Amino acid sequence: MTPVEPASVTAQRRQAAADADAFLRAFHGSFTSALRWHHLDALWHRLREDADAGWYPYAIGEPPPEVPAQAEQVHRFIDEIDALLRAEHDEDYCGIVYADDLEVPSFVKIYDPGNLGVVCGFSDNPPLPGWTLSKLQPTDLAAARPAPRNRRRWWQRLFG
């Protein structure tokens, strides 16, 4: 006999699944690049002004945060990521930071200058960003990404 879990636990699981779905829908939504460095400066300015709005800084590959960052943590994240991007993305343009809305952002993807792959254009397996900054609680993007087809076939051949 399978034990029945309390209704509160079931409701919490449903809410967690809904939150993960909302994050993934937003992640796969429409984004616009902060193409030039002055566009990135403007985006950072808007985010700093809204730093206490419940942002979740998330480094892909690390466990997703469970609670929003404090305003000072958001400011520090912006300062540190900006310094990293300017030091390691030695271009006269930015083009590796994307926001769902550059004027009123609620989701930002930041690609790692050391792992760009095919960020622009089309790819069946585009790289994940290095970091996100979102008003939605993140889900584990590395775990949510399906394995490439050749790897899935290999796995299914072994265990299918």
Describe this structure in words.
The protein has a five-stranded antiparallel β-sheet, with no helix packed on it. It contains five helices and five strands; from the N terminus they run αβαβαβββαα. It has one domain (about 5-160). Strand 3 (about 95-100) and strand 4 (about 105-110) form a beta hairpin. The protein is globular, with a radius of gyration of 18 Å. Helix content is about 40%, strand content about 10%. The protein has helices spanning about 5-25, 35-50, 70-90, 140-145, 150-160, and strands at about 30-35, 55-60, 95-100, 105-110, 130-135. The relative contact order is 0.18. With about 160 residues, it is an alpha+beta fold.
The helical percent reads 40-55%
Please give the order of strands in the largest beta sheet: 1-3-4-5-2
| Biggest beta sheet attributes | 5 strands, antiparallel
The residue-averaged pLDDT reads 83
